TrEMBL record:
Domain DNA primase large subunit C-terminal: 12-180
Family listed: Belongs to the eukaryotic-type primase large subunit family.
Residues of the full protein shown: 256 to 444 of 450
UniProt-recorded name of the protein: DNA primase large subunit C-terminal domain-containing protein
Residues holding [4Fe-4S] cluster: 22, 101, 117, 157
Domain of life: Eukaryota
Species of provenance: Daucus carota subsp. sativus (Carrot)
């Protein structure tokens, strides 16, 4: 099923309703800090490309945040290239694909990084807080925490999906962009 491209004016609302926690976290951090380190820019940037954000909108979006931190000149010089690169417009002109859960789960975020999978990389305390903010009820929350503790990260994410959408997700979550499109098809049906 095809969806219309995500547009900048809807992005905050859509992030809240349909982004999996890994992307929601990056998105919120970007809005908060006006900056993300390389791993975060890659993980979120390719995801946004996957949900249909055009290159022009992506440049506007990243610039609106980064310029508040580093100024427009430095953004144009140091960061715009990476965004065009993600869209295959620079370097080897590879059309890079968004990261799968497996790739994100096996990443190794360092200090100050916000990429990775929260079910694996957050402390339990931070995970609880993040799930609460997503509106996961306390009963479902314990099941999610239990799955995460037992290293079933994608199952934990699937249970979160089911809790916030009040709908089953039989196929399970294996890709953040799949989470997004499954969410949109439920919300738009
Ligand atoms: Fe993101 Fe996948 Fe982790 Fe869910 S399981 S938070 S979609 S990496």
């Amino acid at each position: 099923k095809e969806f219309t491209e995500i547009s900048l004016k809807d992005i905050d609302q859509v992030a809240k309703s349909s982004f999996p926690l890994c992307m929601r976290h990056l998105f919120e951090k970007l809005r908060e800090d006006h900056h993300l380190k390389h791993g975060g820019r890659m993980q979120l940037g390719l995801f946004l490309k996957g949900v249909g954000l055009t290159l022009d909108d992506a440049l506007v979006f990243w610039k609106s945040e980064f310029s508040r931190k580093v100024g427009t000149e430095r953004f144009d010089k140091e960061y715009a290239y990476g965004i065009r690169h993600n869209y295959g417009k620079e370097g080897k002109r590879v059309d890079y694909t968004p990261y799968s859960c497996q790739k994100i789960i096996s990443s190794t975020p360092g200090v100050g990084d916000h990429h990775g999978c929260p079910y694996r990389h957050f402390s339990e305390e931070n995970l609880r807080a993040a799930l609460g903010k997503m509106g996961v009820s306390s009963r479902a929350l314990e099941d999610v925490i239990d799955k995460a503790r037992n290293r079933h990260y994608q199952l934990a994410c699937t249970l979160t999906f089911e809790a916030v959408h009040n709908s089953s997700c039989d196929a399970g979550v294996n890709h953040p962009n799949q989470y997004f499109s499954d969410s949109q098809s439920i919300l738009k049906s």
